[in-house]
UniProtKB/TrEMBL annotation:
Keywords: Isomerase, Membrane, Transmembrane, Transmembrane helix. It comes from Dietzia natronolimnaea. One of its GO terms (molecular function) is peptidyl-prolyl cis-trans isomerase activity. Residues 278-315 are annotated as: Disordered. Gene3D superfamilies: Cyclophilin-like (2.40.100.10). InterPro entries: Cyclophilin-like_dom_sf, Cyclophilin-type_PPIase_dom, Cyclophilin_A-like. The chain crosses the membrane at residues 31-51. This is Peptidylprolyl isomerase. It comes from the Bacteria.
Amino acid sequence: MSTNQERRAEARQRLREQMEAQARREKQLKIVAASVVVAVLLGIVGVVAWINYDRKRAEEYAANWLTCEYPADTETPEPLDPAEFEDQGDEVVAEVEEFNAQVETVNENRRDAEPPSGDQARRGIAELTITTDRGEIPLTLDRSDAPCNVASFVHLAEQRYFDDTECHRLTVAEETTGPEEVPGLSVLQCGDPTGTGLSGPGYSVVDEPPAPDTLELAADGSGAAIYPRGTVAMAKSQAPDSAGSQFFLVYEDSALPPEYTVMGTVGEPGLEVLDDIAETGVKSDDPTDRDNQVPRRPVTIETVVVDEQSGLPDR
């Protein structure tokens, strides 16, 4: 039998073992708790980091890309009844009949095209060449100035939309004199496959007017802007966001309301071609004659080719 002293020693040993076990459990609990806290903190840090990264990516994407709207434009001009204009004289009736002939031409020769899809780049340069029967006209288009319009123009060129079409309008401005004289309109307008100026690709493009202070204002205080020689811009009606496929090339400084989208510039060899076309003149010198803005010698676009694109952002 064990003595009292031995029993007390055994009791003290069991107590020490119990206290050590309790200490180990408390230590393990503290380690587990600390691990949980660290895991939670790491999770929070990770979530915050992911949110910041995702937000940064979204901001970076938005800085480089945008969604362009290209609404369907299915409206076509309707013919008029000449009989309704007989009381206005033979000249008006003749104009109505000419308009009806143009409407028929539109219906027979209209070309529809698909608009660009997906988001469009906010920056990047597109080099194109318009080959006409009068010579080549190189263009440099800058997406940063008009991303939606440049994207549409490039897309139409890639679809061969402009090939074998005529430039239907040529304006020849009278010479101006004096320091405050406002220049007239000196442009070659193209881009309508029907050659009437009444048609487009079946969709429209939002206006992207020049930023303030990018164009010089006319000296007469009218609010008109000077579109300088060599400008490539989109043509439109008086209605907002009515551009489509028609565009104009400025061969002499021209005064216009600052609402026409500027896409880029014409290269020097192209300006020489435009000067030659302008020198040939229009069919009629009478400003009241419809032929006053029709090239005397037809200008045919044979092809429009996208030569190179550069500076596009990565997706």
